[in-house]
């Protein structure tokens, strides 16, 4: 051992080495303490208010890593996540029109244009054909960001086309529902989609082609009253709100106070309206298993 090493060992023993020097404190301004800064966009969980980067949220399929809240998922993201492989997007030839020349606070075409700019989609329903684990399926998903996922003629057209494709190829049809109901700007024409979609589903039923509905938060109105409640199997995501009319409208009609959770998926499961609540991370496997059983796949 040379002289320098002996000095270092001595200073360690005496407790005067650099490891024990006081660390200079770092001043963090008060306003920065409660606001962590991220270099990439973040998403705030509506339940626990945790700030999570969009990339982390997307990797976790928009389920909050802190509290397990299921956040809204865009229809296109949903279908790309659902399929292992997308073969074709259906229904792009159906584009919205303004059959009634409807104007409320702004003209319907203007409202439609704003929704298209906001979402990057042409309508509220996206329809794709693809495969999971080698099993071909047709799936449709509602985009709630697009005018509340409301059902107008194009949504009806795309749904019926997807059902007909599923029927002709004898592939199961999966529907991820998230909608406020029928689209008031298309009046009676949007209500007619309830009957059209119901008829298309009935044709699937007669041919024994499975139709599985996944109810995501929220599903209301004419969509609940038609295609979302006509599945062979009804799955729901945790805490999804599902109903026909909203709580306030029902309370005003029946003149009674209603319990808060009465339109939640958990309450509906207890009362036999839906078949199963499935965590988003288990949804793909669950649907694959149900389809395999219903279609007698090996
Ligand atoms: Zn959370």
Relative strand content = 15-25%
Q: Give the overall average pLDDT.
A: 90
- What shape does the CA trace take? globular
CATH superfamily of the largest domain: 2-enoyl-CoA Hydratase, Chain A, domain 1
CATH topology of the largest domain: 2-enoyl-CoA Hydratase, Chain A, domain 1
Question: Number of helical runs?
Answer: 11
Order of helices and strands: HHEEHHEHEEHEHEHEHHEH
Distance between the termini: 74 Å
Please state the structural category.
alpha/beta
CATH hierarchy: architecture of the largest domain: Alpha-Beta Complex
The largest sheet is:
7 strands, mixed
Write a compact overview of the structure shown.
The chain has 298 residues and is an alpha/beta fold. It is built from 11 helices and 9 strands. α6 runs parallel beside α7.
What does this structure look like?
With 298 residues, the chain is α/β, with parallel strands linked by helices. It has two domains: 37-71, no CATH class; 72-294, Alpha-Beta Complex (2-enoyl-CoA Hydratase, Chain A, domain 1), CATH 3.90.226. 38% of the residues lie in helices and 17% in strands. It is built from eleven helices and nine strands. The protein has helices spanning 3-14, 30-33, 54-59, 75-82, 108-119, 153-169, 187-206, 221-224, 247-254, 265-270, 280-294, and strands spanning 42-44, 51-53, 85-90, 125-132, 135-142, 173-179, 211-219, 233-236, 276-277. The strands form two sheets. The chain has a seven-stranded mixed β-sheet, sandwiched between helices. Strand 6 (173-179), helix 7 and strand 7 (211-219) form a beta-alpha-beta unit. Helix 6 runs parallel beside helix 7 (187-206). The chain is globular, with a radius of gyration of 26 Å. The termini are far apart. The structure holds zinc ion. Zinc ion (ZN) binds at residues 45, 47-48, 50, 64, 66-67, 69. Zinc ion (ZN) is lined by residues 45, 47-48, 50, 64, 66-67, 69.
């Amino acid at each position: 051992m040379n002289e320098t090493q002996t000095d270092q060992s001595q200073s360690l023993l005496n407790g005067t080495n650099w490891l024990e020097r006081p660390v200079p404190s770092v001043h963090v301004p008060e306003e920065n303490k409660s606001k962590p800064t991220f270099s990439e966009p973040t998403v705030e969980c509506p339940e626990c208010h945790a700030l999570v980067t969009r990339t982390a949220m997307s990797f976790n399929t928009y389920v909050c890593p802190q509290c397990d809240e299921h956040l809204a998922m865009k229809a296109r993201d949903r279908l790309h996540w659902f399929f292992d492989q997308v073969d074709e997007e259906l229904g792009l030839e159906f584009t919205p029109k303004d059959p009634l020349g409807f104007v409320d606070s702004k003209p319907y075409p203007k409202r439609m244009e704003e929704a298209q700019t906001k979402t990057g989609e042409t309508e509220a329903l996206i329809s794709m054909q693809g495969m999971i684990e080698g099993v071909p399926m047709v799936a449709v998903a509602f985009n709630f960001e697009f005018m509340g996922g409301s059902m107008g003629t194009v949504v009806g057209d795309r749904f019926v086309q997807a059902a007909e494709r599923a029927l002709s190829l004898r592939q199961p049809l999966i529907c991820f529902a998230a909608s406020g109901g029928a689209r008031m700007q298309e009046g009676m024409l949007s209500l007619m989609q309830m009957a059209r979609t119901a008829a298309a589903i009935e044709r699937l039923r007669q041919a024994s082609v499975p139709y599985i509905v996944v109810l995501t938060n929220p599903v209301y109105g004419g969509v609940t009253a038609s295609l979302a409640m006509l599945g062979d199997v009804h799955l729901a995501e945790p805490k999804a709100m599902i109903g026909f009319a909203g709580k306030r409208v029902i309370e005003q009609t029946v003149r009674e106070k209603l319990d808060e959770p009465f339109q939640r998926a958990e309450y509906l499961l207890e009362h036999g309206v839906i078949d199963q609540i499935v965590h988003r991370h288990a949804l793909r496997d669950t649907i694959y298993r149900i389809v395999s059983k219903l279609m007698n796949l090996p």
